[in-house]
């Protein structure tokens, strides 16, 4: 069985072990993010856990890949858990609107550890996160995925998503082509 859990001390050793195996929960910043997370866990585990659950956007600004700083949106992260850390799924939004700033690549992003892929974990994790998005009151969520990521497309489509448009990511991300999907809630 796979579930999504609020990051907590009891799950942290397993999550840390996944990072140490070279996995990244961050699909944009990859190993830079892994190194930062390992350092943060080392320095102050409770502060690290607290930083992952931030529905009031109290955290520091976000650094985009080109170094631009942007305000943090309300959001939180859940860990995909099957008895071991299996991945991570994040959700962020703007209060009172389903719109997102153009530099935010979708409401929800996810990553499963490579050694537990193709077991339906991401599909199930997204299904569970959609309940959280409903609870926030959004009418729909947007998820973006690169054209070359069929596994992610399947995860979105299996959750009732439909393709809305092809678009170019902001220059801050390099301006590459991507796909925008929408799931009505
Ligand atoms: C995308 C990702 C989260 C999918 O996780 P997962 O737990 O393996 O996904 P699921 O098992 O729920 O479903 C994936 C579907 O895609 C299929 N799939 C998986 N890898 C595939 C591939 N390389 N090519 C085509 N289809 C693939 C699976 O068979 C499954 O389809 P099915 O239900 O018809 O069998 C995972 O591959 C990952 O972490 N990738 C790196 C990070 C990433 O790309 N995140 C998404 C950014 S938009």
What features would you describe in this structure?
The chain is an alpha+beta fold and 185 residues long. The chain has 5 helices and 10 strands. The protein has helices spanning 12-20, 30-43, 45-51, 121-136, 150-158; strands at 3-5, 53-54, 62-63, 69-70, 75-81, 85-92, 108-112, 140-145, 162-168, 177-184. It has one domain (3-139): 3-Layer(aba) Sandwich (Aminopeptidase). A hairpin with an 8-residue loop joins strand 9 (162-168) and strand 10 (177-184). The chain is globular and about 40 Å long. Strands 1, 2, 5, 6 and 7 form a 5-stranded antiparallel β-sheet that branches. It has a 3-stranded antiparallel β-sheet with strand order 8-10-9. Residues 27, 109-112, 117-123, 145, 149-152, 154-155 line the site of coenzyme A.
| Structural domains: how many | 1
Q: Architecture in CATH?
A: 3-Layer(aba) Sandwich
Number of helices: 5
Summing up helix and strand content along with how strands pair, one would put the structural category as: alpha+beta
Number of strands: 10
Mean pLDDT: 97
- Biggest pleated sheet: 5 strands, antiparallel
Associated small molecules: coenzyme A
As for the CATH topology, it is: Aminopeptidase
Summary?
The protein has five helices and ten strands; from the N terminus they run E-H-H-H-E-E-E-E-E-E-H-E-H-E-E. With 185 residues, the protein is of the alpha+beta class.
SSE topology sketch:
Blueprint: E1 3-5, H1 12-20, H2 30-43, H3 45-51, E2 53-54, E3 62-63, E4 69-70, E5 75-81, E6 85-92, E7 108-112, H4 121-136, E8 140-145, H5 150-158, E9 162-168, E10 177-184
Antiparallel strand pairs: 1-5, 2-5, 3-4, 5-6, 6-7, 8-10, 9-10
Helix pairs in contact: 2-3
The protein binds coenzyme A (COA).
Coenzyme A binds at residues 27, 109-112, 117-123, 145, 149-152, 154-155.
